[in-house]
Amino acid sequence: MIYLVAILIPPLALLFKGKIFQAIFNGILWVCSVVMFVFSLGILSGLTFPIWILTIIWAIIVVKGANDDERAQKLSMR
After folding, report:
1. N or C of the chain: less Cβ packing under 10 Å?
2. Which three-class secondary structure state does DSSP give residue 78?
3. Rounded to whole angstroms, how far apart are CA atoms 37 and 48?
4. Helix orientation angle between 48-77 and 20-39, rounded to the nearest 10 degrees
5. CB atoms < 10 A from the CB of 57, how many?
């Protein structure tokens, strides 16, 4: 479920995992790409899709890393 959130709203997925600063920077990029998409800002409109994909990949990698850390911590406590 968290991966679906990471695809639809990447900054929110990072917030759910407690990565506040990464969520802020990811949110800035994500909002910029959404604004460029909505307003199709001339030459910058070509950057909309790559920036959006970058924020999604970033969120998925961070969420996977956080899940792996949680799993490793559970295993080390046994």
Report:
1. C
2. coil
3. 6
4. 160
5. 13
* Token duo for residue 63: 């969420």
Q: What is the pLDDT of residues 17-70, one digit of tens each?
A: 999 999 999 999 999 988 888 887 666 677 788 899 999 999 999 999 999 999
Residues recorded for the chain: 78
Structure tokens at 48: 């909309």
Q: Which two tokens stand for residue 39?
A: 């307003």
Residue with tokens 């959130």, as numbered in its chain: 5
The CB density around residue 21, as the number of other CB atoms within 10 Å, is 8
Please choose, from the candidates 8, 13, 5, the residue with its C-alpha nearest in 3D space to the C-alpha of residue 62: 13
